[in-house]
Amino acid sequence: MHIAMAASEAIPFAKTGGLADVCGTLPIQLSRNGHTCYLFLPAYASAKRSARNIVDTHISFVVDMAGKPMTAHILKTHLPDSSVEVFLIDQPLYFDRESLYSDANGDYRDNCERFAFFSKAVVEAIHRLHLNIDIIHCHDWQTGLIPAYHRVGFHDFSWYRQAASVMTIHNLAYQGRFWGADMPLTSLDWQYFNWQQMEFYGDLNMLKTGIAFADLITTVSPSYAREIQQPSDGCGLDGVLRAKSNRLMGIVNGVDYSVWDPTHDPHIAQRYSNEDWQLGKRACKQDLQSSMQLPIRADVPLIGLVGRLAEQKGWGLVIPLMERWVDHRDVQWVILGNGEARYAQALESLARKRPDRVAVRLEFSDLWAHKIEAGCDLFLMPSRYEPCGLNQLYRLRYGSVPVVHATGGLIDTVCPTTDVSLREGLATGFSFTGYDLESLENCLSKAIDLYSHSPNEWSKLVHAGMNQDWSWSRSADMMVVAYQRARELAAIEGRL
Ligand code: ADP
Asked: Is the pLDDT of residue 51 over 90?
C-alpha cells in the first residue's frame, strides 16, 4: 500500500509526547513490511535543525488563509536509517518557533490558523508531488481538517478519488477547539458548521471534524476505544463516536526496541538482558542514585516516574502520597517531568524537604528518561486515563515493574499480580481500580512488599515483563487491516 501520514510531531524532528514516538516509528515499520509511506510534518525550527540532508523540492504554492495569502514551501528529508520520505511544510511565520504549541503565556493564539494552514498545505502538496496514495492517515486534532478536505473535495485534487482517509485519536482530551468565528480559516463552507460535523457548542472543533469525515477512526488501545464511547470518558464526543462505532478500531501502539531496550541502550551505565538483569539493574540503580545525589543503597525500593506534569498523569494522587510517605516510608523517588507549575513546585518542595528520598528533574530529557527506565525497581503510572501509554511498555522491557491505574491502554498491556497470575508466570505488574489515594497506596504497598520480601516472586514478575513483545510489527499489521477496511468502506459508499 501507499500511505501518506500527516502529523504535528514525530521523532527525531519534534516531540512533546507519545504521538512523536508513534509517528516516527510506525512509517518505518510499514515500509519494512513492504508498504510505501510518506510523512508530512510542519517545518519547525527544531525539525530543520535535527533533520539531516534536507533537500529543497522547489515546490511552493500559496495557501489562502481567510483572504491572507501564505506561502507553503516543501522541504524533503528522511526518517533516519529508512527509506521513508519526510516532507516538511515550511512557513517560518507559523513554525519557526522554539516550542510546538505554546510558550510561557499558554497556547499560541494562532494555533487554529497554523494547523489549518498545515492541513491545507498537506492536501495540496500530495497533489503537487504526484504521490499516488491509497490512504491518507491523520493523527490528532492538528490534522483533523484533512479528512474533511478529502471528503468534500476541497480543490478536488485527483488523489482524493484513489485514497481513503483514516483518523487516529491519540488523546481525546485534546480536541483543537477554537471559537466559531475561526471557521473562514478552514476555507470550508459554513454548511459543515453543524453539530454533526464541525461545530461543538458554538465552537469549531478540529478533532470532531476528523472523526465526522474520516472513512475509519482508530485509537491507540481497545480499552480506550470502548471508554471514549461512554459519557464519563468521551470528553463530550462520546455521542459522535458511538454513532461511528462500526468505524472505530483500537490498536495498541508498538515500541521501537532499537531505541528502548537495555541490551543495547547507549545511555545506561550497564547493558543487560533478562539473563543478567539483576547485575545490570544493580549497576544502573547505583548510577541513577549517584547522579541524582541520592544515598547509594541496593536494598531500598526505587520508584521512578517519567511524564508530563499534567492532571491526566495522576500527579493529583502521587503528590499527596509522597507527602504522606516522605518522612515515614523508606523508599526513594526519582521523578522526571515538565509541565504545570503547581506540580513542579510541590515536587521541588518535597525534594528540598527530603533530598535523601526524593530527586526531581523538571525538564524534558531523553537521556534521563533512559537512565530512569533502567535504574528504578518500580515504575508508577497512575494516570487518571491513558489512551495507550508507552512508558509502561518501555518499563516492562527494562525490568522496572509497572504499578498502574487500570484504565485504557494500561489495562491492555499490564497483567496485574494476583496469586494465580503470579503462579502461572503471567503477572507483569500491579494495578488498582478505584481512582483515589487509598487504592494507589494499597497497590504500591503491595508491590513494595513483594519487592522487599519475595525476591523469587519478584524475579518471575521481571522476567515475564522483559519477555513481552510489544514491537511495532504486530501493530503495523493491524494498522494495514484498518487501512483495508477504510478502503472497503469508502468503496461501498462509491467514493473509490
Ligand atoms: P503521553 O503521550 O500522554 O505524554 P506516553 O506514555 O504515551 O504519554 O508517552 C510519553 C513519551 O514522552 C515517552 O516516550 C516518555 O519517555 C516521554 N517523556 C514524557 N515526559 C518526558 C520528559 N520530561 N523527559 C523525557 N521524556 C519524556
From this structure: no
